[in-house]
Structure formats: structure tokens, C-alpha cells
Amino acid sequence: MEQARTTISKIFNGEPRSYTRFNLTQNMEGDNSHVEMKLSADLDEEVGGNGVGETHQPNGVHGPYALRKTGRSPMNICFLVSATLLIFIIGYLIGYLVHRKKEEVALSCKLADLPLSPPSVVQRETGAAPLMDWADVKSLLAEQLSADKLEDLGSASHRAGSLGDEALANKVLSRFKAYSMHPWSDEHFVRVQEPDARKPNQVTFKGVTEKQTGFLSYSATGNVTGAILYAYYGRMDDFEMLKDFNMLLSGRVVLVKAGKISFADKVANAARWNVSAVLIYGDTDINELYGHVHLGSGDPYSPGFPSFNHTRFAAVQSSGLPSILAQTISWKLAERIIGSLEGHLPPNKWRDVIRLGDNDVVTVEVNNVLVEKKIHNILGVIKGLVDPDRYIILGAQRDAWGTGFAKSTVGTSVLVELARSISTMVKHGGFRPRRSIVFASWSAGDYGNVGSTEWLEVGIQSNWSITSTILAIWCYPIRTCGYVLWFMCALLFSLSLQPMQMSDAAFPFLAFSGIPSISFRFTGTSDYPYLDTPLDTKEQLSKATSYQVTKLALDAAQVAGQMTLRLVHDYLLSFDLQGYDQLITVYTADITRKVLMLQKTNFMFLFLFLKPVQFQLFVALDKVCRMTPCNRPHGTCPQVERNLLSPYVSPRDSPFRHIFIGSGQHTFKAIVDQLEAFRLQNSVVDVDTFKTELALATWTLQGCANSLAGDVWSLDNEI
């Protein structure tokens, strides 16, 4: 051992070192003490041949502070430190490897105890590639959809909240249970208007009073008398044409024809011209016409909030409730009024009448009462295997004023058949959806999409993550959708696009919540005239479709099914934004042109400089549209609709906050209308208000452009 120690000592210092000695001495001139540390080599020089050390001299050459040659150079010290550190690192690594080896051995022992064949579980999709090709998915859907299994879920009467509606809801619920979709009933207590059974609505013309069976929910109530005036379909263009004819509109009772736009739009347009009441009639032989005139959706007495039992929010009404009377009338009464009209000749395109009306007086009496109804939305879910918290909603209206075969029965049957087919594909066909599918059967659709809006308002409060919405609602009008989801229609089918209207059941999802949505319908060469009437029966629809109802219902199921499955199948959702490119370009050009015209005649617009932020958004949209799907930021495109909701207006006052397809002063349509009012020198319009609305709408676009730019660190003054 001594030899090894000596060898190691020579390696580092060149001299042997055996031990050290500590010598504590006291300074004779004071109380301070010091410690002297000497190595054995130092002692050898001090000790004589007999081993006795020389006498200590405080100030001598052998004093405690004398520097002695010991063989310690700076280089030797550096070597000593480096070697010590190296030995420490090597020891640490050896200990770590030994400890890890023990853990691996313990883990191997535990794994050895597990069974070789684990219990079978559903394989979850985690990669970018789908587990089933899209072509195979389409083929599998086509195999499942069957005319023999398409169930007729019609009933004699299933008005929202009635016993017939509840019975049909229970039938849908039982089907969803049979398909193992874990269904549930979403219950709401909503307030709607109904006719007063003791005091019916009536219209008096030339001394003859006729009671009307049909009615318009949410109309103002009371009694008004005024001169009758024909206004064609009640569109804004129709009223402006009457104004060009110098026709007095204020205080008049206008007669309009059903169609082209919703009842609510007709009444709202009439109210803007200070009309006192609106009468609406249908086509020949239609004596009962039903609908609503709320320019909005959901329960108008709890706007922005869901209606639950025993829950009452602040007393507030929707801004979309009309302030004037509205009533539907029979074709017989409309024919008698039209035949008696005198006065100015109508425009050439208005072929239904000979005269527009002069001094013929009509009295309108509306006695609707407000009632509370319990409604049920029935929902079932097929859970996704990768992103189960992202939902695709597939819904259809269940209620109707009467039989409602085209309005709701076919759509409900298609919804249930798709639920059966897709659930079978998942359980037995090997299809594994990435995202979840929610099948929804809505109630109170005829009162203004009340059921779907109430459920949506619950979701907004709960911050649900809804990727997109498809509402497969069968009836005669054209199919409509938001621009972002249109790619799905164009990709799968040859269809035409028209802007979504407020009467579409998907409208609140898009305009209220900013969820990409689509509503589609099949059309014929002529309109189906029996919607919202007791004549909407299976027989009438069969005649209108040349007895092809079953075939067209399966076609509808293919359209809705393929769109739904594509949204839950694809790893990346390739949304198309080109529709907004065109829309922004049109609005930008229109606003710029009108402002330049006003700057020539109105000094208040002289210093209004339009910074073309709209074009900046166009550039951002174009940039994203040109990206390949794999290069798109995850979730960027579906967020476009939500980013186009104005953050500067209250959801209570303006629930449809979408600046392009919403309603209110914050929309670009309203901004263009204000410029037109300036041109017509309408004193009601305020210039400062216009500038504020333009600035807020422009800044909303700015925020959307920023979100499309992607990484926040990439933003610069060009966006």
C-alpha cells in the first residue's frame, strides 16, 4: 500500500507525500494565533539525523511564513484538479449505468408477468394517414343506405310542443338507443305566440269581416286600419319601386305575396317604410298559411341565453321582434282585395295585379297570445377515435305546423337512416371516425329555429368545440351555406351556391357562433307551394316530384352522409376561402365608389380616407387559399368564420354578429346601405356613426387577417 501511495504521489508531484502535520503556535507579541500546515517532506528538512527538530525561531529561516520548495507548480495543481474531476465523472457514470440496469431488469420482470396476448381493444388512429381510404368509405356508405330501411316517420300533426311532437321525439330517441348512440333529450321551456282560441285574428275589407285560421307568431298585437297597397313580394327593391312611383307608404296596410324572402324579412322591410300592417297570401287554393315574423332565431324573450325551466334572465326582448301587425290571409280574401284595387298602374314585372291600390281601407286585428311550451331536442353521438371533443353536427327539423311531410318528415327519416348506416359502418364495417358526429333532431323550427338555437346557446356557455355543422333539411328552397364550407359541396357534387338566409336552420350556427355551416335542399323547376300549410302531405310531395320521393330522399342521404363522413375522415380539413375573396372585393369596390361620389358633393366625406384594409385581408385570404392542405396551420381555416364575428357589438342586441352574413349596423351590407342613404340625403343617417361602424368593421377584418397570418411573430405592417 505504501508503495502504491508513493507511486501515485510521484505521478502528481514528483515527490512522496505520506501525511500532514498541523502546528498551532501563538504569536508572542499578541493574542492572534495562526495554523501552520506542513507536509512530511518539509519535516524531513527540519529534523536532524536523530529525529529531533531544530529549535523554532520566530524570525528565522525556518519560520512559519517562509516559502519552501515543495515541488508544487501551477501546472501540477491544474493537473490535480482535472484528475479529481475526471474521477468524479467516471464514478457518477458508472453508478448511473448500474442503477439503470437494475431498473431495466425490474421492468423486464414485470413485463414477463403480463399475458402475451392483451385483451382486444379498438385500435385508435394516431397517424396522419386514415385507416380507410375515402373511396372505400363512400362505397361502404352506399352499401348501407337502403330504400327498404328508409323509415317513414310521418304523423298527422306534430306542431312544436304538442303530443304529436313528443311522440315523434320518443320514436327518434328509441331508434338512437337501438343504434347504441347513447342518446339524450335536451329539454327547454320556450315562449311562443299562438292564436287566441276565444278571440281569433280577423281582417275586415269593404264591410266584410273574415276570421283567419293561419297566423304569424311574434306579430305585434292590436287593431289597425289603413289604405291597402300592393307591394309584390315585400322586398326592399319592391318598396323602393313604389317610392319611385311617388306612392305614400306611411300608415298603409300592404299586401304581399309569399315567397322569395322569409315572412320576417317582409315585415321588417315594411316596418322601415313606416307601414302599419302587413298581409301575406299564398298561391291558389291555399287558405291557411303559418309562420313567424321574428327577425332572428331562438326564444326572442331570452336572446343569447338558453331557456331552462325555473330560469328567468333579465326582462329583455329580441331586437328582431316586429313593431307592426302581420297576418296571413286566405287566397280567397287576397283574390277579392286584388280584384278591387284601384289607383296607379303596377310595374311591368308585377303581373299579379292590375292596380296598386288607392283609398280602399282594410282593418287588421291580431290577437295572438304568448304561451310557454316544453320542447325536446333528441341527440345521439358516434364518438370519434382521435379527436372525440371535436364535433360535426348533422341535424334536421322534426316539428311542423301540420303534416309537414316536405318540411320535416323526409328530413327526419333521412337523419335516422344516416344514424343507422354510419353506426353500422363503425361497428361492423371497420370505419373509424377521427372526430365525433352528433345527430340532432330539432324541435320548434317553425317558430324560428328555436330548438337548435337554444341548444347552441347552451354550447356557447359551455365552450363546446364544434368543427362544423351540416343540417340536412328537406324542403323546396335552394341550398345555401357559408362560404368556408362550400368546398365540400363543390368537391362532392355539382351544386350551385347562394348566400345563407336567416330562415335557414344552419344560420344561427354560422352568424351567431361563427361555426362553418351548410344547409342544403333539392329544388325543381318550380317552387313547391305547400310548405307551412296543411296541404304539405306525402301525396302532394309525390306529385311535385313525379313520385320520386324515396329516390330523392336517398340522394339527400348520400349528400349529407358524404359531407359528414368527409369531415370526420380527413386528417386535414381543406376549407375553401375563395368565396370571401370575391365578397370582400365587391364590398371594397362598392364602398370606395360610393365614398368617392359623396366626396364630390358632401364636405363631411372630404377627409374620409379609406385605408384599404379590406384588400389586406384579401391578400391574407389569398395566401392561405394557395397553401397546400398540409401547409395550413391547424385550425386556421375553420376559425375564419369565428374571426368574422364582430367583437364590438353585444350578442344580446345584435346576436348575428357576422360582418358579412349577419344582421345589424355592424355588417358591411348596413355600411353600404348607409352610404346609399347619404346619397339620397336621408337625414336619419349620422355621419359620425357611419365612420365608427366602418372603422370597427375594418378592424374586425384586420383581426381576421392577423389570425390567418399564422405565427404572431410573423406579423408585420403588411398585414
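the 2nd protein, sequnce then structure:
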Amino acid sequence: MAGLGKTTLARKVYNNHYIADHFDVRAFCIVSQTYSIRKLLFEILKQVTGEKRDMIKEDEDVADTLRKALFCKRYLIVLDDMWNYEAWEDLQSCFPCVERGSRIMVTTRAQEVAIKMSDPYFLRFLTEDESWELLQKKVFKLEGVPLELEEAGFEVARNCKGLPLVIVLNAGIIAQKERRVSVWEEFAKDLSSLGLEEQSRKAVQSSYDYLRDHLKHCLLYIGYFPEDYNIPVSDLLKLWIAEELVPNINDTENLEKSSKDCLSDLVNRSLLMVSKRRSNGDIKYCMVHDLIREFCSSKLEEEDFKQRIASYNSSSEVPSSPKDPARLCMYIHDNLVNQLELHGYSLNEISMVDSEEKESLEFIAHPRFYSSKCMDIVSLLINLRLIRVLHLLDINMDSTWEFQNSPASTLESLTHLKYLAIYARKFDFKWVSHMIDLQTLRVHSHQRIKTSPDIWKMKKLRHVDITEFSFIWEDDEQEEHVLDNLKTFGKCRVSLADMNRKFWWRFPNLEELSLSIVNFHGMPNHSLFPTPEIHNRLQSLEISFPIGFSTSIGWFKSVFPMNMRFLSLAGISLTEEVVTSIAALQKLETLKLFFIHFPNNNPRWDVTDRQFKVLKYLKLELVDMNQWESSDTSFPLLEKLVIKDCAQLEEIPSSFADIPTLRLIKLINCSELVRDSAQRIKEESDNTQGCERLQLHIPKN
């Protein structure tokens, strides 16, 4: 049944380093009840080949391409949540040569599917002692259990009847209650009278009931995503903010923190599952369990897809004064769209919207909604002008006649937008300059987009992410334009010769910046960050330079902003000045160096007298060095070391065995000498610690 831990166990196996090292390629794919074979195969193909593209070519034979990619390789494929045997029949012809040592692992709730495929492993329920152990871990974490609560706590665990999902959900509820014996005994008594399936539903309902109102709205929003959907957290937080679902703490300054707190709260209550983390431990993707998603869907249907969403004040998280009443919002859903299509997109004719609601009703345009097949998107947009979110990355707007003819007039009625993600062949800032409330702008385009003075009109912009985006600026000494609220600026191609040193000062509160330098010829001899105090809020910086970058250019004699936590550099010469600037970063936790060469054709990196004080993650890829020297104090807090495609490197410094925090060394396409040195480091570390603290991960491919 649901909640036994099938997917959790499959992920544990899939992510185990010793198992992963046995296979050349791997893929983890979720099938679900409704599926597209073509999309499933494409998802497996992307994971097997490492491709990053999002779209399938129309004439592409995905099945044949996948078959060829797997041929003569030892592979591990996980097909999670398969509901019928026909899905397996559709897929199996694409998996060749299983007898070579490849493995296909399937999770399913359907016993007949499992028996037809193989001799299945049936997950059992947890014992009472195992249930109590899991409850303790969730409620008390590293604390000890108070003696007076042991008996009542064990009774709570016992009454969960061994179902892991019910245990963790009830743990999330009881962790919020008073730690009094009488309270816990009453909770255990309520559980004892319920059957297993009823308990599952009750656990989800109780978890929902214990949420504060804004968390309920956030959870229902997540539950509207497709079944088993891997939700990118960076997008989710921006969507919550745009729909005004998270508390606004005094001003807009802490909206991102507030949204992260909401995410953390839902994860801690086991209402959300973490499916992938970043190298620094932050959540990258999350999912919602089928049972919880089904609950959210039924909850929205019960309420006719309508919600009253209140504003919140600074700290008390209570609705604000009557002058600012709760908003009545409605999710755009299939029935609504069908009704609109039948009545010429006129809200006045729609029976599901009361006449007194028509003037004040606002619409929640969830990203899931835009995957609808036969929708006249332009007519819909014009009539639902109060929407705050448009996520159109899956729709080619150029294919609609109205947009192609006049994109600006198509978007002109959307004055309330706070989040816009759009796919267009050629984008112009003039289309969106009237959106004065816009916070997030994402554009996927095939043609390079040049900047426009219209960007300065959007004073509330917080996040800009545009593919093929080039800066070409004219210095306007007469008028200083500043975007104070801009926090992230991503995927920008910059010609440094076309901008002056005042440019980045126009974004004083940047926290994340990603740049690709496309040329540097004729640029003035100045630095981008002349002092570490400039952009002291910047925490993440990615810069890639073109091949042949000259170290004599004054720009790279600059220092980095002092509060950097994440730094990625590509295409540079690793001079003493650069290393000194990096080592001076007292808060740097993640460092990635890609396509790095060394001055004077001397491929040697000596950091013996350097100290990267709080660095936890170091990745070296295509670094052109053969010798690397360091001391046991160079990386005192390092946890993960990843080395990829460093063909000339002879060995990892032996001092890495003396780093007490080191947990993982991962080597990809490295020489046998490097692998041997890593093995020696592991053996010495294990001998010193008396346990297998350090993992060595060497994937086959």
C-alpha cells in the first residue's frame, strides 16, 4: 500500500555509492498512472547521456536513440510507481542486453504487475520497536527522549500500525504539541481506534489541520502539480512569493527567507519529500507523496477551486486589518477553461463564478494549467487579466497568430503580473516594461537578446534569468538608473568592453550573479569589484571566460566581494593573485574550477601556505595540472572533493587523509594514479578513524 517506503528504499539503493560504481550509466524515472512513453524514454535518455535539453525533436526516434545509448553498457534503470503491466510492455524493448549485468528495478503498488515481471520483494510493515525508533528520530532528532514520555511515545508509535508514512506525519504533528504525558496519551488514544487506511487519511488531514493558514495555501499549491512531479525549489519559492502565499515580513526584503522557512516547515512535517539536494545541502528538488497530493486535489475540488488568502503582518502571522481583507482566489482548472471556451471567454456567462464574485475574483494560474492541450491562450489571458503568474515555457508563443502579429498588445492587459516565464524566438523588453509589479522574469529564446532602457522601469524586479542575453549599454551620465530589489541575475553574456565600471553598482543588492564573458578586446584596464566591500550581499558568483583569456587584463586583478559563499570560475589562468583573492573569502563554502590553466605553462598548484577556512565542497573539472600540493590545514573543513577529467593530474595530496571532516571523494575519468592515491587516502583515513568514515566514489562512466 501507499506509504510503506517503496520509493524511499529504491532511492537509497540507487544513490548508494557502492552500487552506483558498479554501473556505467543510471536513470531514475517516475512512471505514474498517466504517462507518455515518449516523454518517459526521453527522460531516461537525458539521464543516461547527460543531455540538458528540455524539448524532444519532432522527428526524433527516442526509443532507438535510447537503445543505442544503452547498448553494450551495464546500466541501472529505476522505474518508480508503475501502475500497469502495459507500461512495462511499452518500455522493455528499449532496454537491451540485461544479461550483461544490467538491472531494472521497479516499484509498484499493484501485486499483479510485480508478479508478472519477476519474483518481487514485498515490503513489510515496521515492528513496534522500529516504529518507535523512527518516531524518536523525527520528533527528537539528536535530543534524548524525556523518560516521562517514553511510554506514551511508544504507544503513539505502536498505534501507527507500522506504516512509515503515518509515523512520520504523526511525528510532525506531535512535535508541535506540548511535551506532556497527558497530551501524548490522548493523541495515542485517538490513533488506536482507526484502521490502517483510515489512519493514513486521518494523518494527512490532521497534518493539514495543524498548519497555519499560509502553509495550507502553500501545500495546496504544491498538490496541484502533476503526479510524481519533481518540483524545482528555486521556481517554487518564486511562485509562492508571486501568488502572495507566504507571509510578508515588514517589507519585501525577507520574502525569500520567508518562502524558504515555509518549505522547511513542510519538509520537517513530512508533507514534502526532498528528492535532490545541492552540493551545499540546500534542497534542489522536492516532491509530494501520492496520498498527500490526492488529499490536496480533493480539498481544492471540495472548495470549488476557491481559496480566501489573507495578508499577514510582520511577526504575528495573523490576518491584517479589515482595511486589507482576504483575497478570493480561484485556481484555473479544466472545467473553468471548458466553460470559458463554450461561452466565448466571457466570465459573465460562467455559472461556477457567482455574480457578486466577478468583480473581485482573482485567478491562480498554476504552472500545471499551462500544459493544457487545446487552449486559446491569448483569449484566456485577455479575459483573466488579474493573474499574477504566467509560466509559458512549454508553449511556443510564436505559434499563436495574435502574439506573432503584436506581442506587446497581447501582454498589455497583464498589469498585475509578478512572475513571467516565456518562450519566444525573439524577446523585447518593451513587451513587459508596463509590468511595474514584475518580480521574476525568465526568458528562453533562440536569438540573443540585447538590453533596453525599458528594464529600468521595472523597479520591483528581483530575479532575472534569460538565455542568450547580451549586455550592450550606453553610459548615461545624466541619469543614474538603479534596481535596488534585484537579487539574482543569471545566464548573462557580457561584452566587458561595452560597459563601464559603474555598471554593476546599479544593482547594489545582488545576491547571485552568473556571467559569461563573450569578449574582452579593447576593454579598459579596471576591475569589476575594486574593493571587497562592493556588493557585500553577493553570495553566489559564476563567471566563465572565453578561451585565450589574458591574465594581463586589469579586470582579474580584482578582489571578490567579502560575503561570497559559492564561487564558480571557468576558463581562467589560476594566478597567485586569483588564488589569494579566493583564499581571502572567509565565508566561502563551495568552490568549482572548470577549464583552468596555469601561468607560464607551469601546471602545478601549490596551496601549502593557503587556507580555505570554511570550504566544504571543492570540484575540479578539466584543470590542466599534473602536480597538486597542499597541507593538512589548507582545507580544514572540506567534506566533499570531486575531480573530473583532470587527465594530467598524478595524485591527490596525501594530506587529505588528515582532514577529519572529509566524507566523500568522487573521481570521474581520472587516471589510475589518481585512483590509487584516493584509495590510499581512504585506507589511511579508515585506519585513523577506526571506521569507514570516508566514501570513495568512482563511477564506471
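The longest strand covers residues 463-471. Confidence is low (pLDDT under 50) at residues 313-323.
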